[in-house]
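Task card 7
Instruction: Convert sequence to C-alpha cells.
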Amino acid sequence: MKTKNILATMLMLFATIGFTACGDDEESLPPLNPTFEAVSGKYTVTTSGSPYESIELTVSGNYIITTDNAAPWAAPAPQAESSTVRTNFLYRTAAAAQTRATNYNGIIYGRYTELGNNRFALEGFGTLEIVYGEDGTEIIGFELTPDGEGPVSLSVSKETTMPDSDATDKLCRTWRVDKMTYVYSEDGHVLGEFTITADNYKEFDDEIDGFPTEALFSKSGTYMVYYTDGSLGISSWKWKDEAALTFLYAWDNQWYDDDFATVSFSGNTAMVYEVYEDYGEKEETYTYMTAL
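Output:
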C-alpha cells in the first residue's frame, strides 16, 4: 500500500466522525469558455534544443508547461500494467512531492486568461501567442514570452485528445475537493467512518501531509492535484469503462489495474468512489467535489 493513503487503524481511531451522503445540487456545471475549448490540448514542442517539452492548455483555464528537467514521476506516458500496488487517485507516493510554486522541479503551471488577438496571459510566467497554420485552424506553434525576457518561437504538435462525450466533458474541468469520507469494515461489519476536510485534515497529519483542495482533469489524459501543504501531484488518467464511469489513474509513470475509481455527477458536483478489499477487510473512499 502506498504512503499518504489512510490506514485501516486510523479509520478505527476516528470512528466517531460521521459519514454524510452527497445530496442533489440544483446548480449545473459552469459553462466552459469557448475560446479555451478551441485552443485546449496538450502540445509537444518539436523545436530542437528547446528547454520546453510540452505546453498544455486546459478547457478550465489552466496551463501546464513541462521542461526538460521535469521530475521523472511527472512524465506524461505511463507504461507497464500491474496489480501489485494500492493507491488513491488523490494521493501519490510521499517521495519527491512537488511544491506548488509557479515554477518548480521542471513544471510551470497556473491559470491563463485571454488577452485578444490569439494572445494569452500565463499567470506567474508571461504570455503566449498562438501561431496557426495556413488553414487558420491548426495550431502549429507558440510565441512564448517569459516575464522579463524576449519571445521564444516554438514549433508544436498537438497530441491526441479524448473524443467529446457527456462523461468526458463533465469530468474534464477543475474541481474543488470538499471532503473525503472513509468507511472501514471487516467481514461485512462497519468498524469505523470518518471525514477529512480542509478544516480538520491536520488531525490526520500522521498519514497525510496536506488535504487535496483541487483536482484537474484534462482531455489530454492529464490530471493534477493541489494540496493545502503547497505540494502538487501531476499524472495521467484514462477511462476504464466510460459507460460505467470508471477511470484508471497512474502515479509514478505506471498504470495499475487495481487503481481505478468510479465517478458520479449531480448538478455541479461529482463524487468519486474507490474501494479496496483484502481478506475480509474493506476500505471505501468517497470524495466529494464541486466544479470551479
